[in-house]
Amino acid sequence: MTALSVVCRRSVKKMVATVPHEDKTAPTFRQAIHLGRVTTARYSEIQSIHEGGVPPMDTPLTLLRTWVVRQAGDQAAWFESQVDALSAIDDTQQLHRFLGLAPRRLGRADLALSLDDVVLAQAAHAGWNPRGWSLDGAARVAALIAFDAGNPERGVAFQTRFHDLVRTADARELVALYRGLALYPNPDSLDADVGEGLRSNMRAVFESIVHANPYPYAHFDTHRFNHMVLKALFVGSTLAPIVGFDERTNPELAGILLDYADERRAAGRPISPELWRGIAPFIDVLDAYPALARVLKGSPRERAAATLALRQIDSPDARRLLTSVPELADLAAVGALHWNNLHRYEAA
């Protein structure tokens, strides 16, 4: 099992843990079925993922085709015929025609997905979460994958084709292209175009790489990952949707974030409470206790973030600071307070 597969499995369990329930304990998949969040037809497959069994054999392309057809209405047959044709012939012009027609024929609605669909997506490719994709965007990614499916010679040329698409794409098209990064052939070859996306001043384009996308976790070196996190803070983007953030946190990033927090505080500028998530594992090494003591006197969200960070360190200093926020510490201890619901603690 790869490290990202472990992250994916944890993510699945977190998604299930967020399903509303009366007894406040983490629900089972069977409870999720009763709540209408998971279909009984898929229960056995999903349970195997939850319990560490063999995942279903759906591929990303199979899932994308299924979801698009399910939502495409009277355009489903057109979509299916187009994808079949693209996988059978070597006609780049036809691929471009399809990419241009997809939003007009299929529409630009959000891709309708259930919890079941998201679980199957993460089984098909570790860390893949297509929530937030559009219908036409899913169709475009499916077409790009289908065009190279089963043809290694085409896959070698994918980087050139992807570069040409990125070079001429508008913002909406860029978002769709970048969201599929981890699913494409030869993903490491896309490094230069990914760099362009990270440098984009369009937040939606930047976040299509950064949020709910397993590509950075699997393909970024430490320097690029750290730079991505710092830019996310600069542009006001949240850190919680970054796939594998906790596993990729490192001493260099923690030091950068602590320095960034000190600079922002000295300038009287706001600091994202999420920043402390990246510092938490290295509080002792960095002697971040004085900074966290100040944060514990801040807004509700700041106090909640500091509580979560300190709970990751079992030290006398951490335990002493936590005595100043007993209610928050208790909530964190039972899992009612965690990094993914920090947004509920509004600033005072």
Can you walk through the features of this model?
The chain has helices spanning 3-17, 29-34, 43-50, 60-71, 76-88, 92-106, 115-124, 135-148, 152-156, 158-168, 171-179, 191-199, 203-210, 215-219, 222-234, 245-248, 251-266, 275-279, 283-286, 289-295, 300-311, 316-322, 326-333. It has 2 domains: 3-247, no CATH class; 249-344. 39% of the residues are buried. With 348 residues, it is an all-alpha fold. It is built from 23 helices and no strands.
Gist of the model:
With about 350 residues, this protein is mostly helical. The chain has helices spanning about 5-15, 30-35, 45-50, 60-70, 75-90, 90-105, 115-125, 135-150, 150-155, 160-170, 170-180, 190-200, 205-210, 215-220, 220-235, 245-250, 250-265, 275-280, 285, 290-295, 300-310, 315-320, 325-335.
